[in-house]
Description:
The chain is of the alpha/beta class. About 25% of the residues lie in helices and about 20% in strands. Strands 3, 4, 5, 6, 7, 14, 15 and 16 form an eight-stranded antiparallel beta sheet that branches. Strands 10-9-8-11-12-13 form a six-stranded parallel beta sheet, sandwiched between helices. Strands 1-2 form a two-stranded antiparallel ribbon.
Amino acid sequence: MKAVVFHGVGDIRLDDVREPKIEEATDAIVRLTASAICGTDLHFVRGTMTGMKPGTILGHEGVGIVEEIGKDVRNLRKGDRVVIASTIACGTCSYCRAGYQSQCDKNPNGKQAGTAFFGGPVQSGPFDGLQAEFARVPYANVGLVKLPDGVNDDQAILLSDIFPTAYFGAELAEITPGDTVAIFGCGAVGLFAIVSAQMMGADRVFAVDTIPSRLEMARAQGAEVIHFDEEDPIETILRLTDGIGVDRAIDAVGVDAVRPHAGPAKVTREDKKEAEKQLEAVAPKTNEDGDNWHPGDAPSQALTWAVQALAKAGTLSIVGVYPPQMKWFPIGMAMMRNLTVNMGNCPHRRYMPKLLDLVASGVVDPTKILTNREPLVSVIDAYKAFDRRLPGWVKVELAPAAGAAKKAA
């Protein structure tokens, strides 16, 4: 079968690999009809998330058809159409039962290893990912959610990771009716964080980014947009909130944040040197290729701005991904202003049924961010376009034969 395979930092390929087999009684084999490229995948290719094992199939978002089940998978049958939870959870340990499926104790690396997920580094399993024609899904009775006929692949793929992560981020921000919220990053998670904040009753939502098309998409969602290469985002937020700041802030960017390269917020020489020092520690190995595979040039930028934008006693939510080697956070500023900080990897399975109901009922239409299609054989080109921080998010559509990739804004 065809699959996107990690060979090293800056080196991914569309390879022919062996089809997966049932290994445990709780496994299922799923024929993928849709997968996606996420910003997290780019962390591995750019070198800002270490520990990837060469030969690992990438991807942690998937929709497909159940082809085979283990004897202990008793809630599914061959032919069921399903969406796959990005994080892998057993459903029986204390964390899973408490709704923290992203901290399941059955990570192969032990109870202290943290989140297990598809297509990640050694500490996450490793498990082969979902950018492939077929995938083995452990604990399929928990990790697969059946789809109703009225929900298509374009809608369903966003329920695998993006929409749940955004909703989780809004929940971590402790948004209450009437709140003013700032969201840093208008990629797919940021856009759905806008939707989620509004669902929770936020009165005003500021969206901060530097890519015009993403900002226009945020504006279309009802957010008040701020282009940080044209104006200082903190000065603007303070001016628009009468000097108070926002009640809640969400970091939807993570370690690959970029600094302003123009405008009044452009960093000083001293700040640039500090960012370069951080980047050297965060991405000790890089393999840049022309315009591609460049790590973000300011790893702590989104975190710093989020803290600065908050009103006293506000809440910061962090769902942008940071690797273990990331050790920079403006803790003094946060402490002196009595900020609450919540963060973590989304327990996708907790949110998927609720969000699926919203999509199936037409309350939310996630397909508004989809733009165009490309053939599966061009998926590496789609990776490169996405890596250059062009608008969006990439959906990979896998037909029984060749398939196609669908790029989203």
